[in-house]
DNA sequence: AATGTTATGTTAGGAAAACTAACATTAATA
DNA sequence: TATTAATGTTAGTTTTCCTAACATAACATT
């Protein structure tokens, strides 16, 4: 997986939004959003003061939930579908790991050359730490 | 302009973030952020209940302000530079007319002297664009 | 028909976050 | 020395969000 994809995944999982913003973005009520969390369909972060903080991924998931419910799927069904999706994602990651050694070496060489060309484009772990409570 | 660029511009200007989130993203105090608004460097939206709501573009602007201040440029200089940038975006020819060459040289000399006095922190703030799509 | 379940609404009381406005402080400058 | 610019701090108020409980409409089960 590329460095760009990884950092974009980090960005989309950053807990930035309060519930009010998420309500507007999804047109869901606070009651609905909390209910879906209660049923473990989303896991928003919490601020120091216990406020839920949502990521863009959370918003995506909520829109999926809303869509599925409007299609008549109930919470149990949605939960099952999400579990399946997660398993599929894990399997695809595992499949991705099964690249040949030579392919791996080729990718690493590529990454090294990239990193050397523009040092600042390499996302460093410490840079994001302040965004998490 | 492509459809993708337009929709991404829409997302970047959407008022999503409360001041607390912006404080974390920029490492600025609420006092500083409100002060910069007071001096018209940013124009955050307001919620129905009068809370400031910031866009990702606002966060970018705040990081620019922070960087310029750390370089020793003062508020008046930043305001002028932002105005110039905005005018340049609209009409570069028009922008040149608004400030005579001698005026421009005077401003730049002023800012250079200001900046030279602040030698201590030349650390550049990272570009926010790394953190979102 | 009566009862239970699911998803959501509503309300109350409390805590956190953000607001404005005023005064304080610190470093740089005239 | 006095002034100014940028920021800190505090107080009092309003808005937003929290949990917990009870209410309800639609639907399913007995």
UniProtKB/TrEMBL annotation, chains A, B:
GO terms for molecular function: DNA binding; DNA-binding transcription factor activity. InterPro entries: DNA-bd_dom_put_sf, MerR-type_HTH_dom, MerR_fam. The keyword Repressor applies. Residues 111-133 are annotated as: Disordered. Keywords: DNA-binding, Repressor, Transcription, Transcription regulation. Residues 16-84 form the HTH merR-type domain. The keyword Transcription applies. This is MerR family transcriptional regulator.
């Amino acid at each position: 997986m590329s460095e760009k994809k990884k950092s974009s995944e980090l960005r989309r999982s950053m807990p930035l939004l309060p519930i009010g913003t998420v309500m507007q973005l999804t047109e869901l009520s606070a009651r609905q959003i909390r209910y879906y969390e209660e049923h473990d369909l989303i896991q928003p972060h919490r601020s120091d003061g216990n406020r839920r903080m949502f990521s863009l991924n959370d918003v995506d998931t909520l829109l999926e939930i809303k869509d599925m419910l409007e299609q008549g799927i109930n919470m149990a069904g949605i939960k099952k579908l999400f579990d399946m999706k997660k398993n599929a994602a894990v399997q695809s990651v595992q499949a991705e790991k099964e690249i040949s050694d030579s392919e791996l070496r080729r990718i690493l060489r590529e990454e090294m050359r990239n990193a050397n060309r523009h040092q600042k484009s390499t996302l460093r772990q410490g840079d994001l730490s302040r965004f998490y409570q």
